[in-house]
Amino acid sequence: MGGSMLFRKSPEQLMSEAEQALEQLDFRKASRIADQLLRMNHTAGFEYKARALWGMDQPQDAIAVLQRGVAVAPQVWILWEYLGHYLSDIGRYGEALEAFRNGMACDGAPQDSFLYNLAIVYQRMGEHENALQMLDQAGRVIRKLPVPVLETARAYSLIHLQRYAEAERALQHAQRTLDTLSDPQMRLSTEASTLAYTGLIYHKRDHDSTLARQYAERALRLDKENHDAIALIRATNPIAEKPTPLWHILVEGVWDEPLEGVRTPIGFFANYWVVADTPDEALEYIRPFEPPSARASLKVSEAEIEDTVQGEPKGVVRTHGGYIFFQEGE
Question: What angle do CA 300, 305, 308 make, to 5 degrees?
Fold first, then answer.
């Protein structure tokens, strides 16, 4: 009975249910709804199926679904956009550039966001002149792309081209226009990037690791997962000269700061991946990532060696932004 009921739902209903399932990280449900859309010959099925597979850590399968999608419906720009993002995230940059260019050529495709996406791929390839060209073009077409996002991306390439004065101007422009960002999450992550890139200028131009760290730590206060802030802090740490463990550390601590809808203080767990000789050393690298009021309470709950590295800086490699909270005594 359930299957026939599903068929009576309109594609629009199914799409909004798939979107909701993805938001709730229920990837299996999103995948099932995507199958329904595909049986109805609706191209949104390719998008939701791919996003669900990506969420389930099946990047190759997600890409294969989108490749089938663009073969069936080459005029649907959103399929090219996801294909470009996923190819770029697994390092297939040439194919990502091609996907974004194909998407940009579709009717109704948002030119500025495709140009921005092309710029990010060029940045990942280390081709910063090309990245800046794309961002300058994005700035000239119809403006849907928020100014602070554009200027922050320009600053990143300018820093890598050692055009520091221009980078500082771009960052100032981004900071002055942050209030134009209506999405609170985007605002936080963009502001975090402006701080991380300011720190990067101090690190690269002035070789001032103290100021660089201060800015990186301020960025992490806003967005604990900011890749550039994490990389900047690591760049100021000592190098692991001998083979050194990469630990997966579950830290436990006490959260004192106000939290919406929760009685504090409250216990929490958080996940980190850290290059360090011992779990205790790893903990010292983790402390700056947590609020100052929580740092003294941090302890290692679990530690597991995932890999061994050598010749890389020590410190936090990545973290999951999410926390698991628990009342003491649970």
Answer: 130
**Reduced to 3 states, what is the DSSP secondary structure of residue 40?**
coil
308: which residues sit within 8 A by CB, 6+ positions away?
A: 243, 244, 245, 246
pLDDT (0 to 100) of residue 118: 98
Architecture in CATH for domain 2-234 = Alpha Horseshoe (1.25)
Tell me phi and psi for residue 321, to 5 degrees: -65, -25
DSSP assigned state of 313:
B
Q: Which helix (H) or strand (E) holds 274?
A: strand 266-275
CA distance 311 to 111: 42
Render pLDDT for 40-61 as a digit per residue (tens, 0 to 9).
999 999 999 999 999 999 999 9
Taking the CA atoms of the chain, what radius of gyration do you get in angstroms? 22
Q: Which residues contact 12 (CB under 8 A, 6 or more apart)?
A: none
The SS3 of residue 84 is: helix
Which pTM does this prediction carry? 0.84
Q: What are the tokens at 237?
A: 């740490």
Tokens of 61: 């399968």
| Per-residue pLDDT reduced to its tens digit, 182-223 | 999 999 999 999 999 999 999 999 999 999 999 999 999 999
Question: What is the rounded CA–CA span in Å between residue 157 and residue 152?
Answer: 9
Query: Which has more pLDDT, 210 or 143?
Result: 210
Q: Which residues contact 67 (CB under 8 A, 6 or more apart)?
A: 83
Q: How far apart are CA 247 and CA 132, in angstroms?
A: 37
Q: Domain extents for the chain? A: 2-234, 239-326
